[in-house]
Amino acid sequence: MATTIGRMRTASTFAARLVDFLRRREAPVVVDLRTTRQRDGDEGEMLARRHLEAQGLRFVDRNLRYRDGELDLVMRDDGGANGVPVIVFVEVRRRAGSSHGGALASVTSGKRRRLVAAATRYLGSLGLRTPPPCRFDLVTIDGDVVLSVAWHRDAFRADVRGDSR
User: Fold this and answer.
1) CA distances from 14 to 4, 46, 81, 153 (A)
2) Residue 84 lies in a domain
3) Nearest alpha carbon to residue 153 among 43, 62, 48, 44
4) What's the whole-model pTM score?
5) How far apart are CA 113 and CA 97, in angstroms?
6) Is residue 5 part of a domain?
7) CA 28 → CA 24, 31, 124, distances in Å?
């Protein structure tokens, strides 16, 4: 019995010390281990999302990574043709300067192929018998201090064999 009481006192003393320590402890230091490029990319995706939501699109998902590519944003456009909702795969491109053609010029045919491959995987993951209508949009963000956001609806088609569009 005496050892049980002794253990209880030791446990309660430990608990009291722990509570006291936690109360006096400073706020934890949070370190962001992402690169500047990753932080800029996240900021650009948030700007693009807000811009598209202001235009009436609905957010579905973001940053979906697949073996063959990545989808920055997946949105839904309820104002599609014939009132049928359209899944919108959005590529977000941000460039500080236009020395290499700006954000729009940075989407190559290889990038489009990877986007289509990732979108195909996404649609397959939905488990639907027939895939819903979809399109590929592009949001470009140019500038460093003053940002210019542009939405390019239906920027390219799923058939990306050539560089036609």
Assistant:
1) 15, 46, 67, 63
2) yes
3) 48
4) 0.73
5) 25
6) no
7) 12, 10, 42
Q: What is the CATH number of the domain that holds 108?
A: 3.40.1350.10
| pLDDT tens digits, one per residue of 106-123 | 788 899 999 999 999 999
- Within a domain: 1: no
Tokens of 160: 């990306």
pLDDT tens digits, residue range 116-160? 999 999 999 999 898 889 999 999 888 777 788 999 999 888 864
Burial of 37 (0-12, 13-18, 19+ CB in 10 A): exposed
Question: What is the per-residue DSSP string for the chain?
Answer: -HHHHHHHHHHHHHHHHHHHHHHHSPPPPP---S-HHHHHHHHHHHHHHHHHHHTT-EEEEEEEEETTEEEEEEEEETT-GGG--EEEEEEEEEES--TTSTTGGG--HHHHHHHHHHHHHHHHHTT-SSPPPEEEEEEEEE-SSS-EEEEEEEEE-S--SSS--
- Structural domains of the chain, count: 1
